[in-house]
């Protein structure tokens, strides 16, 4: 196994984990709300900007912007605020489209994504330009003679932990079971004294917070935060969720790994691959949906008459 | 909606109703003229408020709306002739303002695109985020023909439309099995693939696009030179104004004929209940693919005119965002309503242009407007009507 191959393999899983963190949110929200929250990618990528703001705020207030403690605190605060923003978007906008035709909600959330991107551009100082975003951890570890960047290890470990925590939450806690109940049958859940509105807000918080981790990792992976990152990342996260089958968590993860795999492969092997990567990724998306019209793990559509 | 099953009877004086038609049409034209010519953002906001007030009035006093509608139904020939006259005369009242004329041309091209998408989204409720891509394919196909083989505009126009239609069929094939969000993603993916290819391929000029597309000529008159009618000189944009007005007219006739045909009925049946439509013996697959093809065909025409009008095209003219804008025009204007879709197209084309005073903030403003609009009036400006039969 050559060094280069290992590097690509690691790159694949790192990228796949980041996409999965965002795709899981798309799938979770669709499962519960039955609408596409197209701006989920934009919400997720607010997190790096929030983290940078918190760091500079702490820096100007206390004067120690460089310490590790500050940095960790900033990340946690960013994740929490992103979750709250997700809830607020539901309360202000998305809530109104619960009964509307699906396409209406889709177009509205696409517009919402535009608004979020533009808000970053105007509210963040120098928002139109890329901002350096630090690697969360530096250095390498050596395992069995191979040097592996610590960053990749951390991304993979944290993503696995986050997804496991989500699965645990969905299957074993009261809130999780309520979420599953609402996604299966909103009216029956209401009859069981579950308040769907509260469940929707909880789902928005969880999905946005997990997406925020993905957003922070992505900016750290790219080394910078840009207001327009979310166009590509959001689209890829959405595609991963759809290819996997909307509403299915394992599907979203498989979809992310599939797309990240092709992405890495094209960049490594095809000449001029970096500019053609999206072509390959989206041809894959079309290909998968031709043969599996409701995604790889999607519930097959049986129409009730 | 039940009350509008039959055509409302117009019991008032025929002269009064004829005057109503004339007044409404002239008021519409005057409003558009003022909206195009003013620069001050305060006046723009004022006119928008006026427009909003008219809408609220229509919503509050349905009898008024019904009266206007009945008048138009009664004097349909007068309305048509006056409409054509207004469109023909419109460039003369713009005081030679080339920018206003330019906005008219672009709005009309978008109106064609929105009408094209309306076949799918409005009539059959098939989402399509690839209209921008079909528009781009039409533009690139005709521009490449003109630049590489010296093909004239008039020949490039049908050829580009056919090329776009072939792509529409190609897009229709993977769409046969998928539905709803999955279908939306297939069309998004198709749009991204086309955009990325245009952006990266050698022969499409990459991100720089294609430059120097020659202006069309007709009977020795170049479309790049000013148009002289009755001794009055109009700026060169007027050539394209009349050309795109003709295309809008063709699209409207096309849309109406299709709406009234079995094809339109089949699409409506698909929209209401796909399974029931299938049980009625409607070939669902064929009509779905047909909707994609018709959309691409009209979009190809619009793309060709755009390419020859501006003379320069780049992949950035045909992004995912363009497709989203066209979707918004149809939804905001009123699905399956020809007038609504055209008004939606004009409004959403002119709004960002007229908000230039907000310079950097106009995209933000645009996004907020779309969201607020969808929240306030989810059924669109002019909601779809039940089909009407029997006079």
TrEMBL record, chain A:
Protein name as annotated: High-affinity branched-chain amino acid transport system permease protein LivH
Keywords associated with the record: Amino-acid transport, Cell inner membrane, Cell membrane, Membrane, Transmembrane, Transmembrane helix, Transport
Entry's localization field: Cell membrane
Primary location recorded for the protein, binned into one broad class: membrane
Membrane-topology descriptor: Multi-pass membrane protein
UniProt record, GO biological process: D-alanine transmembrane transport; L-alanine transport; L-isoleucine import across plasma membrane
UniProt source species: Starkeya nomas
Family matches, as Pfam families: BPD_transp_2 (PF02653)
Transmembrane segments: 12-36, 43-62, 68-93, 105-124, 144-170, 199-223, 235-262, 274-291
GO molecular function: L-isoleucine transmembrane transporter activity; L-leucine transmembrane transporter activity; L-phenylalanine transmembrane transporter activity; L-valine transmembrane transporter activity
Entries under InterPro entries matching the protein: ABC_transp_permease (IPR001851), BCAA_transport_permease (IPR052157)
Similarity comment: Belongs to the binding-protein-dependent transport system permease family. LivHM subfamily.
Record-level GO cellular component terms: plasma membrane
TrEMBL record, chain B:
Keywords: Cell membrane, Membrane, Transmembrane, Transmembrane helix
Residue spans crossing the bilayer: 12-35, 41-58, 78-94, 100-119, 126-147, 153-173, 180-198, 240-258, 289-312, 318-351, 363-382
Subcellular location: Cell membrane
Matches recorded under InterPro entries: ABC_transp_permease, LivM-like
Pfam families assigned: BPD_transp_2
Name the record gives this protein: Branched-chain amino acid ABC transporter permease
PANTHER family according to UniProt: HIGH-AFFINITY BRANCHED-CHAIN AMINO ACID TRANSPORT PROTEIN BRAE, HIGH-AFFINITY BRANCHED-CHAIN AMINO ACID TRANSPORT SYSTEM PERMEASE
Recorded topology in the membrane: Multi-pass membrane protein
Principal location class: membrane
């Amino acid at each position: 196994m050559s060094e280069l191959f290992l590097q690509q393999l690691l790159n694949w899983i790192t990228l796949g984990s980041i996409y999965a963190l965002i795709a899981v949110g798309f799938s979770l929200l669709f499962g519960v709300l039955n609408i596409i929250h197209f701006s989920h990618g934009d919400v997720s990528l607010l997190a790096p900007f929030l983290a940078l703001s918190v760091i500079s705020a702490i820096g100007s207030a206390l004067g120690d912007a460089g310490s590790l403690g500050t940095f960790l605190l900033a990340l946690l605060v960013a994740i929490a605020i992103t979750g709250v923003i997700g809830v607020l978007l539901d309360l202000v906008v998305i809530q109104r489209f619960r009964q509307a035709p699906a396409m209406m909600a889709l177009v509205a959330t696409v517009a919402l994504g535009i608004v979020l991107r533009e808000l970053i551009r105007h509210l963040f100082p120098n928002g139109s330009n890329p901002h350096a975003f630090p690697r969360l951890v530096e250095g390498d570890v050596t395992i069995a003679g191979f040097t592996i960047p610590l960053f990749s290890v951390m991304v993979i470990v944290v993503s696995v932990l986050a997804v496991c925590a989500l699965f645990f939450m969905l299957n074993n806690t009261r809130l999780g079971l309520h979420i599953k109940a609402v996604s299966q049958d909103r009216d029956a859940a209401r009859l069981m004294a579950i308040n769907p509105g509260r469940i929707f807000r909880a789902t928005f918080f969880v999905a946005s917070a997990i997406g925020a981790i993905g957003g922070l990792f992505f900016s750290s992976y790219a080394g910078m935060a840009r207001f327009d990152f979310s166009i590509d990342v959001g689209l890829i996260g959405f595609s991963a969720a759809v290819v996997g089958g909307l509403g299915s968590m394992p599907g979203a993860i498989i979809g992310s790994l599939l797309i990240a795999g092709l992405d890495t492969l094209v960049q490594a092997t095809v000449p001029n691959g970096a500019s053609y990567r999206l072509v390959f990724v989206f041809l894959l998306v079309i290909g998968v949906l031709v043969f599996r019209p409701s995604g790889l793990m999607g519930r097959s559509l049986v129409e009730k008459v | 909606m039940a009350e509008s099953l039959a055509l409302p009877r117009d019991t008032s004086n025929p002269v009064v109703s004829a005057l109503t038609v004339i007044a409404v049409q002239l008021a519409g034209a005057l409003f558009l003229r003022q909206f195009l010519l003013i620069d001050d953002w305060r006046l723009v906001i004022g006119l928008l408020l006026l427009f909003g007030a008219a809408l609220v009035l229509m919503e509050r006093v349905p009898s008024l709306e019904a009266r206007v509608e009945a008048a138009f139904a009664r004097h349909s020939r007068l309305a048509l002739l006056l409409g054509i006259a207004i469109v023909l005369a419109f460039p003369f009242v713009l005081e030679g303002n080339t920018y206003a004329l330019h906005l008219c041309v672009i709005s009309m091209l978008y109106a064609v695109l929105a009408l094209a998408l309306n076949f799918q989204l409005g009539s059959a409720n098939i989402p399509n985020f690839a209209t921008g891509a079909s528009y781009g394919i039409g533009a690139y196909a005709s521009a490449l023909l003109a630049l590489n083989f010296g093909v004239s505009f008039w020949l490039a126009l049908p050829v580009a439309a056919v090329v776009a239609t072939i792509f529409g069929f190609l897009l229709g094939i993977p769409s046969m099995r998928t539905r709803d969000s999955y279908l939306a993603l297939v069309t998004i993916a198709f749009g991204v693939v086309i955009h990325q290819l245009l952006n990266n391929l050698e022969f499409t000029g990459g991100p720089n696009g294609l430059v120097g597309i020659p202006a069309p000529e007709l009977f020795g008159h170049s479309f790049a030179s000013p148009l002289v009618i009755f001794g009055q000189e109009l700026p060169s944009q007027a050539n394209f104004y009349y050309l795109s007005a003709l295309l809008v007219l063709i699209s409207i006739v096309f849309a109406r004929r299709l709406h009234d045909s079995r094809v339109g009925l089949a699409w409506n049946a698909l929209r209401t209940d796909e399974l029931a439509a299938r049980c009625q013996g409607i070939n669902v697959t064929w009509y779905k693919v047909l909707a994609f093809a018709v959309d691409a065909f009209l979009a190809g025409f619009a793309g060709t005119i755009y390419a020859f009008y501006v003379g320069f095209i780049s992949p950035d003219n045909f992004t995912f965002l363009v497709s989203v804008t066209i979707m918004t025009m149809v939804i905001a204007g009123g699905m399956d309503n020809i007038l609504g879709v055209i008004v939606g197209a004009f409004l959403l084309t002119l709004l960002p242009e007229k908000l230039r005073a907000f310079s950097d903030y106009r995209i933000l403003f645009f996004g907020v407007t779309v969201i607020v609009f969808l929240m306030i009036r989810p059924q669109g400006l002019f909601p779809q009507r039940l089909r009407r039969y029997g006079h």
